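Notebook, student rotation project (T.W.).
Task set for the rotation: take a protein with a known small-molecule partner, predict the structure of the complex, and write up what can be learned from the model alone. Partner molecule chosen: flavin mononucleotide. Sequence and SMILES entered below by T.W., checked by me.
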Amino acid sequence: MNAMVVYESLYGNTAAIGEAIAEALRGRGLETESGLISRISPEVAAAFDLLVVGGPTHQHGMSKPATRRTAVQDAANAFADPTVEPGLSEWLTDLPDTDGKLGAVFDTRIDKPVFLTGSAAKGIAPRLQGSGYRLLAKPESFLVTMKNRLREGEIERAGSWGAELAELASVSR
Ligand SMILES: Cc1cc2nc3c(=O)[nH]c(=O)nc-3n(C[C@H](O)[C@H](O)[C@H](O)COP(=O)(O)O)c2cc1C
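Predicted structure of the complex:
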């Protein structure tokens, strides 16, 4: 089985989580590719047996052109390759339909109760299901501090989640 992990990222946190998930999938024997949605087309991603998709939470959901602009123009943003276009929502629109391939979704969001922060993953999940993917797990969130840094332990938790996905994928084929 092979896997693709794609993510949108403005400040690098979702990218770091996505790479930790990809590394865990590789560690469990899945041939895994990974990268920013600006580098991987929906058509290429759709060819993999397992597709894992993640993005940052902006204004309670997936990013919009204006929220991405805000992040790109933020003088404190040091990430080398922020996602400008396409955004995750547009990328998902172009994802070809599949007949029951496996999927999983995650986001990053602020470390506060979800009713206050919203969750991009809750919006990504139905979009993936709408393209015919069978989700292996509930949408998962990885948390950043108010200073926009991943909370301690989140990279390790992403690795554990990736390993769990590999297990679930192996029993659901
Ligand atoms: C314009 C903008 C709006 C945001 N809105 C929310 C929000 O509604 N809820 C939340 O939890 N985090 C919000 N955040 C914080 C992001 O979730 C955080 O920057 C992101 O998880 C970091 O991921 P990244 O480094 O991959 O961009 C927002 C960030 C930006 C730049």
